[in-house]
Structure formats: structure tokens, C-alpha cells
Amino acid sequence: MNNKDWKVTGNAMTKDFEFKNSKLAMNFMNEITKLADEYKRSPDIHFHSKKSVSVKIINEGQDSISEDDIKLANLMNQLG
């Protein structure tokens, strides 16, 4: 896994992404929503202070993260 600032705790991964402006942050949120649909995941996504986005990927019903969670996180890294 290309961890790149993701914090892993049990079955969850979290990361904060920073952008130059709110438009870029909102575009990122839209793109990761599409990716999450492809991977059948429902991450918690929060928009903060006009240019920061927090993401939490949770593997519901499992004790650890899955390969798909890791793939999704790495794709988010590429977008962010």
C-alpha cells in the first residue's frame, strides 16, 4: 500500500486532503464519490474551511481493511 498519510485504525482509514481553493476541493469530492460507487464503498466525506476534505473509509462488518479499501485509498491519493 502507498500509505501516503492515511491513518489506519482497525477497519478504518482516514486522511485529510488540502486544496488551493474550494472549487478543486468540491471537484475532488465529486470524483471520489464516483470511485466509491465503483468499489461499492460509502466513505465519510467532509468539506472543511473552503479547501480541506476529510475522508474516512470504513470496512463495515470486518475487523480490518480490505484490498478494495486500499485500492480506493490509492486512487484517492492520485486524485488529491
Number of helices: 2
CATH class: Alpha Beta
Q: Kindly name the structural category.
A: alpha+beta
How many strands, which pairing sense, and closed or not: the largest β-sheet?
A: 4 strands, antiparallel
Shape: globular
Tell me roughly what share of residues is in helical segments.
25-40%
> What order do the strands of the largest sheet run in, or round the barrel if closed?
1-2-4-3
Q: Strand tally, please?
A: 4
End-to-end distance: 16 Å
Describe this structure in words.
- 38% of the residues lie in helices and 28% in strands.
- The chain has 80 residues and is of the alpha+beta class.
- The chain has one domain: Transcriptional coactivator/pterin dehydratase (Gyrase A, domain 2).
- Strands 1-2-4-3 form a 4-stranded antiparallel sheet, with helices on one face.
- A hairpin with a 2-residue loop joins strand 1 and strand 2 (12-18).
- The chain is globular and about 35 Å long.
- The two termini are 16 Å apart.
- The model has no long low-confidence stretch (mean pLDDT 90).
Summary keywords:
single chain, 80 residues, alpha+beta, Gyrase A, domain 2, 4-stranded antiparallel sheet, globular
